[in-house]
Amino acid sequence: MKELILRQKQILFFIVAGGLSAVIEIGSFKIFSMYLPNIISNEQNFHGIHYPLSNILSTCCGIISNYFLSIWFVFERGKHSKRREFAYFMIVSFISTLLSLGFFQIFYSFVFKDNINLIVYTLSPEMISKIAAILLVSILNYSIKKKIIFNG
């Protein structure tokens, strides 16, 4: 019973840490996608890739915040050294970033074409695509981080 409660607590903290990291990632994406096209003319469509630099920079902000939130609140230290743990975290995050960028491109190009009005805020297709990509990849992230990186 204690393990079940502990596991549920860990999942809850992972969701909270992931949610905070997602807020940081989505917020920074919004800022980057608003201002980078003014500086870099190809940012909105770089050879068919939509908002590549905004996506990469915002994802880096999300990864760094997620790492610190994960080690502070979610997972106990694993059997690896801090350096190796960080390296594994970055490798998994890099792969996750590639998946997230791919899902973003698919969602933005083929799935989400219209704004969604939430009464107090309207979500653009790029924001909806970013949120959907984050949600999809986060499920994979929890499993891998728990089993491989922070496995105790």
Automatic annotation (TrEMBL):
Q: Which UniProt keywords apply?
A: Membrane, Transmembrane, Transmembrane helix
> Which InterPro entries did the record assign?
GtrA_DPMS_TM
Provide the topology term for how it sits in the membrane. Multi-pass membrane protein
Q: Which Pfam families match?
A: GtrA_DPMS_TM
Q: In which compartments does the protein localize?
A: Membrane
Domain of life the protein comes from: Bacteria
**Ranges of residues in domain GtrA/DPMS transmembrane:** 14-150
Q: What residue ranges are annotated as transmembrane?
A: 12-36, 56-75, 87-107, 127-144
Q: What is this protein called?
A: GtrA family protein
Q: Which organism is it from?
A: Chryseobacterium oryctis
